[in-house]
From TrEMBL:
Residues 78-92 have a biased composition (Basic and acidic residues). Residues 53-69 have a biased composition (Low complexity). Residues 79-258 form the DUF8175 domain. Keywords: Membrane, Transmembrane, Transmembrane helix. InterPro entries: DUF8175. Signal peptide: none annotated. It comes from the Bacteria. It comes from Streptomyces neyagawaensis. Residues 48-109 are annotated as: Disordered. This is DUF8175 domain-containing protein.
Length: 262
């Protein structure tokens, strides 16, 4: 999980999220980011100023909103095009101004991830949490869940099923293979997840900025994640070099972000 950087359940390097491990950082060439945000983000690569996260995909995102089974303006969730057993209400297409009423934290290893019965995920298959609403809020939930699960054992299944194929996914697999898995022991907490904002959205692709706490001096850090609608669900779109976070920066507060409120 994108968190404050302290290891839980032990002090060993391999118990930390993979983007905080020295092997991951060195292999990805993120030493410049390490100097600034070592305790928070190290998966920024050289694309920190690119928030779209789509350069690693073999083809551009479709822009049409008239694809079959879209469910726009209805509650059918595009069930004809969705995986078996997945049905969501996709009628709310406005960018969220507050967290869902039914949002709660769900344990994933030693961290907690925001989930919602209305926005998703609605299906839990081991490390793969899927079936997100085709809405801005569904994209937010997917951005949190998919990236968080890349820290733990089972990450390869997550990559296979929830990352858009292409050069970016290949690079992510190559770099992630060199790192250990985060420990699943210890008491879960909400880590650093503090808030979010939807930077861009259409029914085919969205870029979400995640806000986390735990920076030195009580500050905050933010980073963007891009997801694309493919095969009936949101999937992560890494950069060509395997980077999953872009636009990494320190921020002074929560202004401009929707905050998670338990």
């Amino acid at each position: 999980m994108l968190n404050s950087g302290r290891a839980r359940g032990g002090s060993g390097e391999w118990e930390q999220p993979f983007w905080q491990q020295r092997g991951w950082i060195l292999s990805a060439g993120f030493l410049g980011v390490l100097v600034v945000l070592a305790a928070l983000f190290a998966v920024t690569g050289n694309g920190a100023e690119q928030s779209t996260g789509a350069s690693g995909d073999p083809s551009p995102a479709p822009t049409s909103t008239s694809d079959s089974g879209s469910g726009s303006g209805s509650g059918d969730g595009g069930s004809k095009d969705r995986p078996a057993g997945c049905r969501t209400d996709d009628s709310v297409q406005a960018k969220p101004t507050k967290a869902p009423r039914d949002f709660h934290w769900k344990a994933n290893g030693t961290g907690l991830v925001p989930v919602s019965r209305t926005a998703g995920p609605l299906k839990y298959d081991g490390p793969v949490w899927s079936c997100f609403a085709r809405t801005p809020m569904g994209a937010v939930m997917a951005a949190h869940s998919i990236t968080d699960h890349l820290s733990y054992d089972g990450w390869l299944e997550v990559v296979d099923r929830q990352v858009v194929p292409g050069a970016g996914r290949d690079a992510l697999i190559k770099t992630r293979t060199q790192s250990g898995d985060k420990s699943t022991t210890g008491s879960p907490d909400a880590g650093g997840y503090t808030g979010f904002t939807v930077l861009t959205y259409n029914r085919s692709q969205a870029t979400v900025m995640v806000l986390v706490s735990g920076m030195g001096g009580g500050g905050y850090g933010s980073a963007s994640v891009t997801v694309r609608w493919q095969d009936g669900d949101w999937k992560l779109v890494p950069e060509a070099d395997g980077t999953i976070y872009g636009g990494v920066s320190q921020v002074s507060g929560t202004d401009g972000f929707v905050t998670w409120e338990a």
